[in-house]
């Protein structure tokens, strides 16, 4: 019988988890429809156990104490000084491989002890959204140096995105960490227009002070 481990070891295979919510009858119907579509492409149904295991344990690797390796322990021990972050960007489909290649190579050149990986979260007709994760380790155990490495790594990651016409942001951010990149993303003229509209609508600077590249006061 097929298992997730066996399938993942086969060239060109990937592991897909499907989930549906709502009333029981609707969930059953959506599940049947999805399975019917997938089976047209040779998908092997592994049943519910693998999906349930993911549901119960999908966040274990973020934290210590669950008896499973943490997310970074594949690369370095938990007590190793390191920095990292999760961000997301949306880029034209035709450039995604080139952006990933250039980003990975530039990051490795700057920090040999680093890794860039992630997943594609959303797909559109002309573009895709990625949630890459960066880890850099074997760094000085100093908050200032770790902070410098973080911002240097992020600059390495977002420059190729802008180069190929994409948009970059912090994952679940509010525009504070990368707000200074707004002129790059919109163009100097475009961001000046946005800033002028903001000043006209919000002369007392109540909305988003210091965020999204807007002035603090």
UniProtKB/TrEMBL annotation:
Pfam families for the chain: FAD-oxidase_C
Coiled-coil residue windows: none
Entries under InterPro entries matching the protein: Alkyl-DHAP_Synthase, FAD-bd_oxidored_4_C, FAD-linked_Oxase-like_C, Vanillyl_alc_oxidase_C-sub2
Gene Ontology terms, MF aspect: alkylglycerone-phosphate synthase activity; flavin adenine dinucleotide binding
Record's keyword annotation contains Ion transport: no
GO biological process, one term: lipid biosynthetic process
Keyword terms, alphabetized: FAD, Flavoprotein
Residue ranges annotated for the FAD-binding oxidoreductase/transferase type 4 C-terminal domain, each copy included: 79-211
Keyword Flavoprotein: yes
UniProt xrefs under PANTHER family: ALKYLDIHYDROXYACETONEPHOSPHATE SYNTHASE, PEROXISOMAL
This protein's name: FAD-binding oxidoreductase/transferase type 4 C-terminal domain-containing protein
Organism: marine sediment metagenome
